[in-house]
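FAQ: What does a ligand-bound record look like?

Like this one, built around nicotinamide-adenine-dinucleotide:
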Amino acid sequence: MILQRLTNKVAIITGAASGIGRATAKRFAEEGAKLVLNDLHSAALEELLAEIHSPENCAVVSGDVSLESTAAALKETALERFGKIDILVNNAGIHWIQDITETTSEEFDHVINTNLKSMFLNCQSVIPEMLKQENGGVIVNLSSVSGYVGQEMLGKSTFLYNMTKAAILQLTRSLATRYAKDGIRVTCVAPGVTKTNQITTEHTPDLDGFWQAVEAVQPLGRYADPVEIANCILFLASDEASYITGTSLVADGGYLAL
Ligand code: NAD
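The answer part, i.e. the structure of the complex:
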């Protein structure tokens, strides 16, 4: 019999309709998890259900993850449908390539709310449930190599994205130390460039040129496939990572080692 690593575990995954979140939902389902999947795009979530292992063990909550009402709906759905919450994957996020001199106050709020406030709201919502459980729980946040370096892209600054991803490292450390004694592990994954919809033609008219440039600067000579990042999230969420909390797993093809 093949051992499934998330048998009987209930996981909430935000931003599950695309890229890393989608790959994570599929890997978690293959490993026996029951899932509550969120995204802005409900049609794409329904399409995912058609591809996923055991769709009968999945619930879908579409909505903006930066709203308190979405966090509440995710929690209520998990509890009503599956009776508990073992794992929260705070994955939803947006990229931002724009210099500080061009970024409006409204745009600033939008990126902070999507990438950071969403994590505050979801952690605040699920931690009280995890505290009630004998086995605690696990939170995995999506940071980025951009949280470590003052990266530029295409000659423009990604300062705002970088800020949110650095703050996620500190959110992770702070919640991990606060709740370690309660059996709640809080970790994060910091991917390097991964081929998903996050890198769009909106900001990168020469997409092929972009991916070639990425490959040229990676020590491993290529960008990541979303499933390679999903496997990192799976490891941290599983009991195999039982002694890991407060830290970030960098999966960047060696980029930060340069
Ligand atoms: P993606 O664009 O393929 O997927 C992100 C998903 O989040 C989309 O389905 C989108 O609809 C959803 N989403 C966006 N805003 C939302 C909101 N307000 N409410 C609900 N859902 C929302 O991107 P991805 O690359 O898979 O990104 C996933 C995470 O990984 C993000 O946090 C991103 O910052 C991080 N990351 C990505 C890369 C990369 O190179 N792709 C690198 C490092 C970190």
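Follow-up question: can I read anything off the structure? Yes, for example: The helical segments are 19-30, 42-51, 68-82, 105-132, 159-179, 207-217, 226-237.
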